[in-house]
């Protein structure tokens, strides 16, 4: 989504290779995951921004990398470009109108110009009933969950609780606790982010409690289609050098796989040749 935050892009490319490799090697855990789950991987939502970051920012200082390639070719931050469904939802709350999902009917009241990349992803979200998703960023190390906007309008420090707050916290902790050190309370905070030490709260944060994002993909996914989406900040450095990528993969591998498993907490029986067979718990041989 942000072209200068390249770690997520590289991790998803590696994840695709890993899933195929482990499947063909007979890894039962990965085979079950693939058989049970429809998996979509989108390594880059902003290829123009990535190309600019690669050509102009990859060898620059971390401070410069904060900006080069962040936006798309039209200089628009795509994670501020989705319809602001939070505003509609908060208005429904004030009117005692009990509707906090499938809110796209109200978007005709919104005025922002939707970019082609954003519109394409919106069509995908509406076409396919996603259950669980994450959008990947870097610049910090934390699992961020809805809501990203505050009810009062303050720009940070106000916890914006959703009706599914417990579930979102559980999903965020799933990623943080399976990451090498996202949830390690002894690690130091990222030096450039100016953020609190998220590790002391389990490596997770409510979006608006951290800082407000208006028009982000996370809340749009949740409020438009009931998809449980997190925003994952995967590392302090936005544009890590290539030699660090293998280590970053190892740091994130277990967390990525465990997060995907949460789309189906229970393994149900399957049918093979008309015979009902149980799917064994993960880690046990059939």
From TrEMBL:
It comes from the Eukaryota. GO terms for biological process: peptide metabolic process; protein processing. The keyword Zinc applies. Gene3D superfamilies: Zn peptidases. One of its GO terms (cellular component) is extracellular space. InterPro entries: CARBOXYPEPT_ZN_2, Peptidase_M14, Peptidase_M14_domain. Residues 1-263 form the Peptidase M14 domain. GO terms for molecular function: metallocarboxypeptidase activity; zinc ion binding. The keyword Membrane does not apply. Its cofactor is Zn(2+). Transmembrane segments: none annotated. Keywords: Carboxypeptidase, Hydrolase, Metal-binding, Protease, Zinc. It holds the Pfam family Peptidase_M14. Belongs to the peptidase M14 family. PANTHER family: CARBOXYPEPTIDASE E, PROTEASE M14 CARBOXYPEPTIDASE. This is Carboxypeptidase E isoform X1. It comes from Diaphorina citri (Asian citrus psyllid). The lineage of its organism: Eukaryota, Metazoa, Ecdysozoa, Arthropoda, Hexapoda. The gene is LOC103511299.
């Amino acid at each position: 989504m942000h072209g200068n935050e390249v770690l997520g892009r590289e991790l998803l490319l590696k994840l695709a290779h890993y899933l195929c490799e482990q499947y063909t090697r007979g890894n039962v855990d990965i085979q079950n995951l693939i058989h049970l789950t429809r998996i979509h991987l989108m390594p880059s939502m902003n290829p123009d921004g990535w190309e600019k970051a690669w050509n102009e920012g990859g060898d620059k200082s971390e401070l410069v990398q904060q900006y080069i390639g962040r936006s798309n070719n039209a200089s628009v931050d795509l994670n501020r470009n989705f319809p602001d469904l939070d505003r509609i939802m908060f208005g429904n709350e004030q009117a005692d109108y009990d509707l906090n999902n499938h809110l796209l009917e109200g978007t005709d009241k919104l005025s922002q110009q939707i970019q082609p990349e954003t519109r394409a992803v919106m069509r995908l979200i509406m076409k396919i009933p996603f259950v669980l998703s994450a959008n990947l960023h870097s610049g910090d190390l934390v699992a961020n969950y809805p809501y990203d906007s505050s009810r009062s309008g303050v720009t940070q420090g106000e916890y914006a609780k959703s009706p599914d707050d417990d579930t979102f916290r559980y999903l965020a902790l799933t990623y943080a606790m399976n990451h090498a050190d996202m949830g390690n309370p002894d690690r130091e905070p990222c030096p450039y982010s100016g953020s609190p030490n998220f590790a002391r709260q389990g490596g997770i944060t409510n979006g608006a409690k951290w800082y407000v994002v208006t028009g982000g993909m996370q809340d749009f996914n949740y409020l438009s289609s009931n998809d449980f989406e997190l925003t994952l900040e995967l590392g302090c450095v936005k544009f890590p050098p290539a030699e660090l990528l293998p280590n970053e993969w190892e740091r994130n591998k277990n967390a990525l796989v465990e997060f995907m498993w949460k789309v189906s907490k229970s393994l149900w029986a399957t049918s093979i040749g008309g015979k009902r067979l149980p799917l064994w718990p993960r880690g046990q041989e059939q």
